[in-house]
Amino acid sequence: MAKKYSNKINKIRTFALSLIFVGFIIMYFGIFFRTHPIVMTIFMVLGLLSIIASTVVYFWIGMLSTKAVQVVCPNCNKPTKILGRVDMCMHCREPLTLDPNLEGKDFDENYNRKKPQKNQSN
């Protein structure tokens, strides 16, 4: 079965959103320890740190997104951003590349690595 790929910017945004929900869940668990103020405070602080981490990730991906190359997808004709040598369209998941050496090749996220990895399937 083929691996399901998605756009790098969307992956990082999804991770940041999950950090927010994890932070809220951690804080919610702190409510169960109302009788133990120290434990409740620890859960609240951990939840707050998770939410702050998500803010940092959102800021980082926002800065990265402003530097990303914007192209028009040839499949859906919508503008999308490319991070690295290969990426997927945000809208239709069409593999995109700016490298003429990679045109026509199967999509592989390993093309974004500086040193190509050897195939470990043997």
From TrEMBL:
Residues 96-112 have a biased composition (Basic and acidic residues). Residues 113-122 have a biased composition (Basic residues). GO terms for cellular component: plasma membrane. It is found in: Cell membrane. Keywords: Cell membrane, Membrane, Transmembrane, Transmembrane helix. The chain crosses the membrane at residues 12-32, 38-61. It is a multi-pass membrane protein. NCBIfam families: PRK02935.1. This is UPF0295 protein BWZ43_12705. It comes from Heyndrickxia oleronia.
